[in-house]
Amino acid sequence: MLNDFLWNFLDLQVRPLEIFCDSCGGQNKNYTMFRFLHYIVHNTHRLDYVKVTFPIRGHSYMEPDKNMGLINSHQRAEIPSDWVEIFRSARAKPSPFDVVEIDQSYFRAWTNFFNTKTDYLKKCPFRSRPIRELEIHQEHHRLIYYRESYNGA
What we know:
- This protein has five helices and four strands, in the order H-E-H-E-H-H-H-E-E.
- The longest helix is centred in the first third of the chain and has 12 residues, at 31-42.
- By secondary structure, it is an alpha+beta fold.
- It has a domain at 2-65 and 107-147.
- The chain is 28% helix and 12% strand.
- It has a four-stranded mixed beta sheet with strand order 1-2-3-4, covered by helices on one side.
């Protein structure tokens, strides 16, 4: 999804990207995501700089968290189109959620892609769980900066 956003929605003149992600280890704090961001900066040259901030759990109060709270997870959904309707009807104001229906062809096998490239290690050389901020800079091809504390600056 991030790949689609970067190439099809984000203005091509935008060169730095700063994003906030929850700290879920299986979703955003995984090595494939780190390799993907490095690839976007250093191989495709779509961005010059990426900074990812992982707020402390329960302290973000960000808009996506509020929006997910509107979804009735107790509604019965048997097929993907059921979820489309649940999301569309979850909010009326300020406007209904804009739901984009996708099929399997939308998804990429990034893990397999990076595992076949010789310039990426198969195993993350550092522990991802304690990371609070991650940065990738165009001018430092072989480096991924990270820190385990967060000072808000």
